[in-house]
Amino acid sequence: MPTHEPDRRDPGPSLEQILGLIAPGMLDVVVAPRGTGVPVTDVALHDPGEERDDGTWAAAGLILLVVGVEVASPDAVDVLRGADRAGAAAVVMRRGGRGPRAALLEAAGRGRTALLTRRPDQGWTEVLGRLRTALVHSAPAGAGGTAGLAGLRLGDLSGLANTVADLVGGAITIEDPQSRVLAYSRLDHEPDPMRRLTILGQEVPRWRVVELRESGFFQALWSTEDVVRLPADARYAERLAIAVRHGSEVLGSLWAAADGQPLAEDAAASLRTAARAAVPHLSHHQTWGRAAARAREGAVHALLRGDVRDAQEAGVATDRPYAVVVAEAYDGRASGAGEAYDGRESGAGKASGVAGQRVLDVLALQAAAYRPGCVSARSGRLLYVLVPAGDGETDPARTLLATARSMPRGVVLAGAGPVAAGPSGLSASRETAELVVRVLRERAAGLPAGEAVSAVAAYDEVVPGTTVLRLLDRLEPLWGSLSGPVHAMVEHDRAHGSAYGDSVAAYLDASCDTGTAARRLNVHPNTLRYRLRRARELFGVDPADPAVRLLAEVGLRLAARRPPGADGR
User: Fold this and answer.
1) pLDDT digits (tens, 9 = 90+) for 200-235
2) How far apart are CA 377 and CA 372, in angstroms?
């Protein structure tokens, strides 16, 4: 069978172009007998079962990913020769530990098909996705042209949104098929209410999604390759939308809205052009952008645990000081205990209400816009932000904390740790910031029911509180092995539902002022005096005794950390 020669009229991108668009080091060129300027038509997985009756394959111009065969395998030579007969542009095999055999190198040098190897730490799925994305990105623009979009870095969705906004003459939002916001164009004018809600929530409001679905708008959008118009009404400006497709797959959609002036007459035509240009960018986001974001967030969590090896992957400059800010979506049910940070969930571990999660979303957006180099990562109901400090700056998180303070009261707590000179100090800054949040959480839990929480602080504002928490963390294991009057009182309260401990704690917190403590407990002063007397009679807990008073301060604070039912009763 003669070697296939690609169609000269549309040779497609070259192997060199494709390799230039994927991550460096993902694939290595072992032998390229015709160089890397050979045209590529597609990328496919190799399956020996697809051979024709004459033993050949339909592989002309393809990059073949040979799953299950490494370069040291005896089968490698036969696979390479078969691919060469079929006119494949290149084959990719797993590198393995021993490297290619001499026979394979000799066969590759005599043929026309390039031999590439895959790094051991790269999966076949990721390699396939990146090669296909690079192929789409390298393909000719086709009719209509996309001159204004040609210079964008692959995957730069924010740049894409701004460029499309210039083409269309309106505000652009790029969404995935689930109506989540992937990027939006700069805000040159005050957005209409729907655009503001969509951007702040990072997704189209659920009620709006239901409204568009029930009206048939989404059915029209996903079933056509043309622009779909959503007329203006009394609430919102006119919208134009178009689905972004790669073959039969819907990757997302582009939305254009009037931005201070009506959309241009050719806005629909410009949006069609933009949808074609958006394919490689959304394909890139789908195949590796999310994976890269997860990897980056994982690197941030590793850095916060003290592993500095992935600092650069986390986006942190190794020669720059940072402070860690921790924000918590507060729901009033956190235990206050000091769990070890594990990069997942801590404290109560449950996401609070939608309002709290939205506040964290907005804070993450504000952090990204606050200053270049801010890095953030989510962990359950917590948001961690690494804020770079300027030369000599001692309070880089001040503005970000002010933003948190301006959020709706009652749904967020935020604390900042001290500035760390480098990546090795970020774990300590994170631990301190978490202590600040714990102090604020305990203060919030002590507020009367219904009183709004406004809790934002830097470390130097709550040093006494964080010091007490550190001491209690050290004392807690020892306290559990001891016994005494306070232990007996606490166990009685848990077994019988009494409130002697709460009464003593309120009395001590009020500096032994019966009237103030009674008001905080919402009981009559005589009721409180009775409880204090019975605590002395039943358990020997006498606040007038300095030693007992100290033990009660410690024991009752530790007892408050135990969630209901922790003792199994």
Assistant:
1) 777 888 888 888 988 989 989 998 989 999 888 777
2) 16
Sheet strands side by side (includes 375-379):
375-379, 382-388, 322-329, 412-416, 455-458
Contact (Cβ atoms closer than 8 angstroms) between residue 372 and residue 402: no
**Cα atoms found within 13 Å of the Cα of residue 490, Cβ hemisphere only:** 24
Whether 4 has a pLDDT exceeding 70, the answer reads no
Structure tokens at 131: 């090669």
Q: Is 565 exposed, middle or buried (0-12, 13-18, 19+ CB in 10 A)?
A: exposed
DSSP assignment letter at 310: G
Quick one: pLDDT at residue 406? 72
Q: In what order do the strands lie in the sheet with 62-70?
A: 27-31, 114-118, 90-94, 62-70, 42-45
**Tokens describing residue 260:** 């201070």
Question: Which pLDDT band, with edges at 50, 70 and 90, does 68 fall under?
Answer: confident
CA end-to-end distance (rounded Å), the chain:
80
Q: Which helix (H) or strand (E) holds 217?
A: helix 217-222
pLDDT for residue 126 is more than 90: no
What would the two tokens of residue 352 be?
């609070």
Instruction: Give the CA distances from residue 383 to residues 41, 346, 356, 396, 415, in Å, rounded to whole numbers and listed in that order.
Output: 44, 11, 11, 17, 11
Q: Which of the 8 DSSP states describes residue 148? A: G
Any idea of the CA torsion for 482, 485, 486, 488, to the nearest 10 degrees?
Answer: 80
Give the chain's length.
Answer: 569
Residue 203: DSSP 8-state: B
Rounded CA-CA distance 107/115 in Å is: 10
Alpha-carbon distance of 516 to 506, in angstroms, equals 9
Give the amino acid at 569.
R
* Strand 27-31 to 375-379 pairing: unpaired
Q: Rounded to two decimals, what is the model's pTM?
A: 0.53
Helix axes 546-561, 500-509, angle to 10 degrees: 110
Q: Amino acid letter at 84?
A: D
Q: Which of 459, 458, 336 is nearest to 404 (CA)?
A: 458
- Distances in whole angstroms, Cα of residue 154 to Cα of each of 18, 136, 159: 12, 11, 10
Q: Which H or E element spans position 507?
A: helix 500-509
Q: At what angle do helices 514-521 and 525-539 cross, to 10 degrees?
A: 100
What is d(CA 451, CA 565) in angstroms, rounded to the nearest whole number? 27
Amino acid (1-letter code) at residue 145: G
Of the chain, the percentage scoring pLDDT greater than 90 comes to: 32
Contact between 12 and 39 under an 8 Å Cβ cutoff? The reply is yes
Classify residue 169 as exposed, middle or buried by CB count within 10 Å of its CB (0-12, 13-18, 19+): middle
Rounded alpha-carbon distances, angstroms, from residue 521 to 485, 499, 502, 555: 22, 10, 8, 19
